[in-house]
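Handoff note, outgoing to incoming analyst
You'll be picking up this chain. Sequence as last confirmed:
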Amino acid sequence: MAYQRRVLDGVLDEILPHLAAVALEGAKGVGKTATASERARTVLSLDEPRQREALAANLDLVTQVPPPVLIDEWQLEPHVWDTVRRAVDNDRTGGRFLLAGSAGLAPGVRIHSGAGRIVRMIMRPLSIAERGLEEPTVSLRELMSGTRPGVSGRTTVKLPDYVDEILRSGLPGIRDLPDRARRAQLDSYLDRIVERELPDNGVSVRRPGALRAWLAAYGAATATDAAYSVILDAATAGEADKPARATADGYREQLQRLFVVDPVPAWVPTFAPLKRLTRAPKHHLVDPALAARLVGVDRAGLLRGDGARVPPVGATWLGALFESLTTQSVRVYAGAEDATVGHLRTKSTEHEIDLVVEDRNLRVVGIEVKLAATVGDKDVRHLNWLQDELGDRVADRVVITTGEYAYRRDDGVAVVPLALLGP
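Most recent structure output, in case you need it:
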């Protein structure tokens, strides 16, 4: 099967010849191994017991085999990181090492940070542009330039198609399966996290059912900044013997370490007049297909507006999942530009912006996500407020929709169907 290039490939093409070691990190199944293997001459897979034993017995093996060397699931033998770091100190020739990991370090394991030697990059599931629905006509890179580029294009992708993309998943090995097999595989993916991935990475799960219930409640809180106490209450509704808050916090920390929980942090601008902003993150799983599966709403139910949210709010469950799908794609495109992604909400909830992309020059693109084909003045008021507050620091204002056309409104706000947005 031919390799499908990812947005991250362009970044690796640019930097890998000049860097001795790059670490690709991200959830299991996002495609790290396939992408890294395209560039590797030697592959050491540490989830294979024999290769792991061989490396554990001789960590210097990574310098004795032909480079470039891919060390897959390196965190299972974490001291290999320090071996690579020392090898880079001795020889900074570009393109020597690729490390792929689907978890952060187990609690209590200490290694050197690798700063200045090993460059870390996050890989996420397939963005909309990488799924090949349409040829993008609007570039996030150009939106971030501050030139207010022309916006145009037409898509045949409609709301039911976005629902299909939410449910199909952005995990390459899952999305092309038949419906029933895909649902079974998503269930297996979730079970594996609880039953194998956490234990393999040094975490004892004493109450798997409670962890699964918390994960479902977290999924139901997608695209909200609900308090963790609210999520815990939703996970343990009707139970007298509730897990302690510390236990629930431990679930969250470990799932984030596995890159399964992928929250969007609150954006707090540097050198800006904005005051009284919340610091709570917005909740997202690494793929909205997992949230949909945990909540148990199918295609017909999503289109009907079914799905209980945590906390109960007026917006639909499908709207939350569409925002999560958009967020997943925007983070992939922003990552290719060394830009960060946050969200903004004032403590009074008077102003709220779904996504704020900020580049290295502190320029920002404000993005609102609307589960609608049309955009009115009410939908852009927060974006225009941000422009009034920050002036030229706002490179552009964008509303992502499920509509047919990309265009600019008279007030300059870009209206872009998700299918037409690309890197």
